[in-house]
Amino acid sequence: MSVKDDLEARSGSTCELCTGTNNLEVFEVEPVSISGVDSSILACETCRTQIEDPEQMDANHWRCLNDSMWSEYDSVKVVAWRMLSRLKSEGWPKDLLDMMYLEPEVLDWAKATGEGLAEADKIIHRDVNGVILENGDSVVLVKDLKIKGSSQVAKQGTAVRRISLDRENAEYIEGKVGPTMMVIITKYVKKI
């Protein structure tokens, strides 16, 4: 059986967040260390759109979290916690968050994307020009960099695709330069 088949069996072919049935797809809950049923949910188009694009948020749609936050599946609870955290300024989500309990490792997973932090507390990665960097962006080196542990040098102008951000330090990103995965300081890159 595929992941989608397993999720449909688990959820009764309904969205695990709002119980909708419109255009159900597998939604992987970031960050994904292992893909599969345990790190995914079955979500409708409306929920997926609003999760991925906060600008399209309809707070009333998420009143469904009153039920789904009690799911027995960690991936569903993580998404419910993130959406309630995003909406806590509405008032009612704050009450639900206060009732919600997550095991410490599940709470760490929920917080891994920075959801729930005040804007001032979020770690923001910026390139040499001050442009905000996101996971998956491509950057170009603005300076020759020696690759630690080897005699190689990553030349200025080298493109680094699909970077990942260090969640604890705003100055560090990771990316592959050739076959080598390396940590790069953000002041030496420019977003493409």
UniProtKB/TrEMBL annotation:
Sample GO molecular function, one term: hydrolase activity
Start and end residues of each PhnA protein N-terminal proteobacterial domain: 6-52
InterPro entries: PhnaA_N_proteobac (IPR013991), YjdM_C (IPR013988)
Record keywords, A-Z: Hydrolase
Pfam families reported in the protein's UniProt record: YjdM
SMART domains: PhnA_Zn_Ribbon
Record protein name field: Phosphonoacetate hydrolase
